[in-house]
Amino acid sequence: MGLFNRLIAKVRGTSTASALDWSEIEVELLASDLGPSLVSELLAASKKMRGDDAESAVKEILTSKLSSKPRALRSDLSTNVIMVVGVNGTGKTTSVAKLATLLHKNGESVTLAAADTFRAAAVDQLKTWGQRIGVEVIAGKENAEPASVAFDSVKRAVELGSKYLIVDTAGRLHNKSDLMAELGKVKRVIEKGAPLAEVLLVIDGTTGQNGLAQAKIFSEAVEVTGLIVTKLDGSARGGVALAIESELDIPIKFIGTGEAAQDFAPFEPEAYIAGLLA
Fold this sequence. Notes:
By secondary structure, the protein is of the alpha/beta class. It has helices at residues 5-12, 22-31, 36-46, 54-65, 92-105, 120-133, 146-160, 176-193, 209-222, 239-248, 269-277, and strands at 80-85, 110-114, 136-138, 164-168, 196-204, 226-230, 252-256, 264-266. It folds into two domains: 5-65; 80-277, Rossmann fold (3-Layer(aba) Sandwich), CATH 3.40.50.300.
């Protein structure tokens, strides 16, 4: 990504761009979805840097803005229930399937819950993925209550002795309060059957500051413990990942970079920072 090349060149005094100034760098960083508060802080610190130490100083600042919370999935429970939330269109259901694939390949027993019952396509998609991966998918009847599916799934996963139960949830945002109330209900029902290990929020990396706004809303409703950031490929500016971690202190746990099952991996902070500086 190399978002900070021009900033480092400016601090070092090696920039050859005739019209390059701090205002242009600010515009460029804002366009990368870092957010105004983080950009202002970075620029203020950069103006005080010594030229020779520019790259290491910027790297230190960026690293300090990442969350220090654990990035590994919780795995200490007999059945670790992972509730996956997010608005439609972020790649939520696909991320559920990819996470299941990753865990299954690592030798873990996994059960899936198709609790996005408002979208028949989501249920069918998860069933297809389940058959492909070789894991059981719990689904209710058409238009079944999401909380009911979640409850049945917890019961079944415990019976099977599954190490992980991953619950796909509804993502309609046309009525925000109704969606959050529904997610809260699903969460409470899950907790009647088993402790909730994780609440993972799926964010589309191309949505910029809108992704940060979504993270705030979902965090208030269901206490998000980690993020899955999708579409972090060549077209995504990627700065939103740093902005969310900096402002909300929610760790990114996984990233999706493409459509295939293998285009999904644990988030590596050092590699991410290196990409911003490359």
